[in-house]
């Protein structure tokens, strides 16, 4: 018996709920979803889905951003409760209403962002909530020894005494996986685990996943990277716009079929690109350097979409924040309409005519617990005021106009922004900048977590802005989006510009290769 | 890829909820008044009512200033110390022969300076509001004691000390001071863009910054307003007790925070009003006043205040959760 099984065994004995799971023979249904459904406010995030997971399989779930993958995971791990439907665990209906219930039954998830305590040691994190004690005192050295043997056993070359926060995200993710494995997990969900990992770390993770599978753990693997799905999975389910559109055995399908299921429409239909004449340069960046990016030179002209592609952390958002005056620039020049300018802070940028719809709506884009109207008006209160006092009628009219023009689905401008779906929240961020007006719009990941309908609306809006003579910088980690929309596509890697292409001048493979660095 | 929606089916418009909450508070205040009117004979006497208004007035002004800070998701622990310190500065200036009006203006400017120092500590030095205001709380008491050498300075300006006892149109002058502060404060918080910026900074300062709000200036403003309100209360207190003493107004910062929280301000920021803390301050004053009339041990008053804070904030939490 390996150390891992030994420690997992300790947990098995402790938990009666767990042994229930281990009775299911490999290949029999372990978790069945029957008409599982979730509504968020006005939005159906997951339409009734019926999916069966078989014990011991690796089951991939694929879908575009906003297809309902995250909702599904949150339902299975008890983070949110379902609106309707039934879940059978080992043939018995279960509530899965709290995270603790899911964990007690042996359902665990490893998230893209690690949710552990960065200031504690690896060993302390592995044993968190389940410390080894004698007479009420922790057996720190024993835990460290046990943790080390688990790590060695899994083939991770990590010191158990190291502080978790000092490790790379990839290593932290391995720790999170080891933690789930130690808890005698029967059913382990990976949510886009490789988003932040290097190739080597990904390979190590895959090895671990296969090993867990060989020990009888059922794996759900969520990703939008096709090559990973075909490398790992036994079966694959496809989600689209919150609908489960099919499940296939991996040997009976191919990449094209899956992509067709995921989008179900031709690329021209989603990506709305009109022929718009490109005019004079609006912005020229020359050798811009700042925190997270180095020596970036690019030009944005009127009527042009400039796409910035790269993996997460490649320096695109940092460049945008630097350009916008949020982060200080250490070198380089910015020319605005042919004139050299200095952008010291956000207000300088706004005054010139730059607008930024930032990467994270939650952290940077919106005051979530404040009304929609306040969010929309935030940049323009100066204009809406007479003397010190805000014109209440102007305030209402401006907010209502954006709500109407952008078709934000809300009963009132007084509703807090937090009650809106991702797509509607993105529209609020955009509405803020439309009412302010700008010459250059920077959209950082504008369609993440946004439903397909809204996506199309956002793309149509791009065309409208371009026709009015604006320029757009579009930052996206989703290659088809920048590939189909950008007049000029720049590729970032490690904070540097590593490639620049005109519309459709390079293949997907070329661009991806530059971004990954092969 | 995350879904950024939260659990919120059809949230009701905010304004309706706020009115409901204010009405509940006013209802509570009226219920207290009616109950005290029934069980004591002396509650509804003109003397007691004007006493009550005087007691509540100073906490009410502190609570309004405090609310500006709390809306930005900060806290100002120094207000009690500023009140005591201001009485010392004012008495000291008067003793040195400085004309009254100039002494008052200098005292208020000193409040502005202390608030600006708090803003500097938070914005430039990156200190948590709790720490920087805790530090000034203890140091200001120390500076005040140094100036007075641990004793008190009496104020001999009769016109000034009569002010706190005076009435105007049958209402105590101190209560008029509440109105003098509350009306511009209401315009500032609810009708001007600066007020909106306070809420935006308290809700998400990064989003506010990226929307062109001058976040640093907004934080400076909140702490300057709070400290200036406290200095103003110091002037009023000096008038009421006729002395300058650095140990006065001990624990008033907690009274101010309690009034603000009872009045519906969220310590997490971005929720609050001007009228809420005013009502909260008078609820607290009524409880103290009623307890005195009923001969309840003053130690019990502290316990009751503590319990009241828990009950009111708990119900407010339930209400918010319910509306979500």
Describe this structure in words.
The complex is a heterodimer of chains A (518) and B (324). Chain A is built from 21 helices and 24 strands. By secondary structure, chain A is an alpha/beta fold. Chain A folds into 2 domains: 3-264, Rossmann fold, CATH 3.40.50.300; 269-353 and 438-516, Rossmann fold (3-Layer(aba) Sandwich). In chain A, helix 7 runs parallel beside helix 8. Chain B has 324 residues and is an all-alpha fold. Chain B contains 13 helices and 4 strands. A two-stranded antiparallel ribbon of chain B has the order 1-4. In chain B, a hairpin with a 2-residue loop joins strand 2 (167-168) and strand 3 (171-172). Chain B is globular and about 55 Å long.
Topology overview:
The complex is a heterodimer of chains A (518) and B (324).
Chain A: H1 3-14, H2 16-22, E1 29-40, E2 43-54, E3 58-62, H3 69-76, E4 84-89, E5 92-94, H4 99-105, E6 107-110, H5 122-126, E7 133-134, E8 137-138, H6 140-154, H7 169-182, E9 187-191, H8 199-214, E10 218-222, H9 226-232, E11 235-240, E12 243-249, H10 255-263, H11 267-270, E13 281-290, E14 293-301, E15 305-309, H12 316-323, E16 331-336, E17 339-341, H13 346-352, E18 354-357, H14 361-365, H15 372-377, H16 381-384, E19 385-386, E20 389-390, H17 392-405, H18 422-436, E21 440-444, H19 452-467, E22 471-476, H20 479-485, E23 488-493, E24 496-502, H21 508-516
Parallel strand pairs in A: 3-10, 3-11, 6-9, 9-10, 15-22, 15-23, 18-21, 21-22
Antiparallel strand pairs in A: 1-2, 1-4, 4-5, 7-8, 11-12, 13-14, 13-16, 16-17, 19-20, 23-24
Helix pairs in contact in A: 7-8, 17-18
Chain B: H1 14-39, H2 46-71, H3 79-95, H4 100-123, H5 129-148, E1 153-154, H6 158-163, E2 167-168, E3 171-172, H7 173-191, H8 193-203, H9 205-210, H10 215-241, E4 243-244, H11 252-262, H12 275-293, H13 298-323
Antiparallel strand pairs in B: 1-4, 2-3
Helix pairs in contact in B: 1-12, 2-7, 2-8, 2-10, 2-11, 2-12, 3-4, 3-5, 3-10, 4-5, 4-10, 7-8, 8-10, 11-12, 12-13
């Amino acid at each position: 018996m390996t150390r891992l099984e030994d420690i997992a065994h300790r947990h098995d004995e402790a938990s009666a709920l767990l042994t229930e799971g281990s009775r299911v023979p490999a290949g029999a249904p372990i978790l069945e979803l029957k008409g599982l459904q979730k509504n968020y406010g006005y939005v159906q995030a997951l339409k009734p889905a019926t999916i069966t997971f078989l014990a011991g399989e690796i089951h991939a779930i694929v879908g575009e951003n906003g297809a309902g993958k995250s909702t599904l995971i949150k339902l299975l791990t008890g983070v949110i409760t379902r609106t309707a439907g039934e879940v059978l665990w080992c043939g018995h209906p279960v509530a899965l209403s709290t995270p603790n219930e899911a964990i007690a039954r042996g359902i665990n998830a490893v998230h893209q962002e690690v949710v552990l305590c960065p200031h504690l040691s690896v060993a302390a994190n592995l044993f968190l909530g389940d410390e080894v004690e004698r007479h009420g005192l922790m057996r720190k050295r024993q835990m460290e020894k046990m943790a080390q043997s688990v790590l060695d056993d899994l083939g991770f070359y990590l010191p158990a005494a190291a502080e978790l926060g000092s490790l790379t995200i990839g290593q932290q993710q391995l720790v999170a996986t080891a933690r789930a494995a130690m808890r005698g997990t029967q059913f382990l969900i990976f949510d886009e685990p490789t988003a932040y990992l290097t190739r080597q770390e990904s390979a190590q993770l895959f090895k671990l996943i296969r090993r867990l599978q060989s020990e009888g753990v059922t794996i759900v693997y969520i990703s939008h990277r096709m090559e990973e799905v075909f490398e790992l999975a036994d079966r694959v389910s496809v989600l689209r716009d919150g609908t489960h559109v099919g499940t296939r055995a991996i040997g009976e399908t191919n990449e094209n079929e899956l992509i067709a299921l995921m989008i179900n429409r031709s690329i021209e239909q989603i990506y709305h690109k009109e022929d718009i004449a490109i005019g004079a340069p609006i912005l020229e960046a020359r050798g811009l350097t700042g925190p997270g990016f180095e020596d970036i030179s690019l030009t944005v002209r009127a009527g042009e979409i400039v796409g910035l592609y790269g993996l997460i952390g490649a320096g695109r958002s940092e460049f945008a924040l630097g350009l916008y005056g949020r982060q200080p620039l250490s070198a380089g020049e910015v020319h605005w309409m042919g004139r050299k300018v200095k952008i010291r802070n956000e207000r300088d940028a706004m005054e010139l005519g730059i607008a930024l719809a930032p990467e994270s709506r939650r952290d940077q884009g919106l005051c979530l617990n404040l009304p929609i109207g306040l969010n929309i008006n935030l940049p323009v209160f100066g204009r809406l005021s007479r003397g010190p006092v805000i014109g209440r009628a102007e305030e209402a009219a401006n907010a209502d106009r954006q709500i109407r023009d952008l078709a934000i689905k809300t009963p009132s401008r007084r509703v807090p922004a937090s009650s809106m779906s991702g797509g509607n929240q993105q529209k609020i961020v955009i509405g803020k900048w439309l009412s302010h007006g700008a010459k250059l719009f920077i959209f950082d990941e504008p369609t993440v977590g946004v439903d397909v309908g809204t996506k199309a609306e956002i793309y149509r809006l791009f065309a409208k802005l371009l026709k009015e003579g604006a320029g757009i910088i579009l930052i996206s980690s989703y290659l088809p989006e920048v590939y189909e929309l950008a007049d000029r596509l720049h590729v970032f890697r490690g904070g540097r510009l590593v490639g620049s292409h005109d519309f459709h001048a390079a293949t997907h493979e070329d661009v991806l290769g530059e971004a990954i660095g092969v | 890829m995350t879904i950024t929606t939260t659990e919120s089916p059809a949230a009701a418009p905010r304004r309706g909820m706020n009115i409901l909450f204010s009405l509940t508070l006013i209802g509570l205040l009226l219920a207290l008044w009616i109950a005290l009117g029934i069980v004591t004979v002396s509650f509804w006497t003109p003397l007691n009512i004007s006493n009550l208004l005087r007691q509540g007035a100073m906490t009410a002004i502190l609570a309004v200033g405090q609310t500006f800070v709390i809306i930005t998701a900060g806290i100002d622990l120094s207000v009690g110390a500023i009140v005591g310190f201001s009485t010392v500065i004012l008495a000291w200036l008067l003793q040195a022969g400085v004309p009254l009006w100039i002494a008052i203006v200098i005292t208020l400017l000193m409040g502005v300076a202390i608030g600006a120092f708090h803003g500097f500590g938070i914005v430039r030095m990156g200190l948590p509001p709790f720490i920087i205001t805790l530090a000034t709380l203890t140091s200001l008491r120390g500076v005040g004691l140094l100036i007075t050498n641990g004793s008190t300075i009496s104020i001999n300006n009769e016109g000034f000390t009569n002010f706190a006892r005076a009435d105007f149109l049958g209402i105590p002058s101190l209560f008029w001071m509440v109105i003098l502060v509350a009306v511009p404060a209401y315009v500032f918080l609810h009708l001007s863009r600066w007020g909106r910026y306070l809420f935006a900074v308290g809700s998400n300062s990064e989003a506010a910054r990226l929307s062109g709000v001058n976040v640093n200036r907004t934080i400076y403003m909140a702490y300057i307003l709070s400290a200036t309100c406290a200095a103003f209360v110091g002037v009023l207190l000096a008038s009421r007790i006729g002395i300058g003493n650095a140990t006065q107004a001990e624990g008033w910062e907690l009274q101010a925070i309690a009034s603000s929280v009872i009045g519906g301000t969220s310590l997490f920021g971005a929720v609050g009003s001007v009228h809420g803390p005013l009502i909260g301050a008078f609820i607290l004053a009524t409880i103290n006043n009623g307890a005195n009339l009923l001969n309840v041990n003053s130690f019990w008053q502290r316990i009751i205040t503590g319990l009241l804070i828990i009950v009111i904030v708990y119900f407010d939490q339930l209400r918010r959760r319910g509306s979500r």
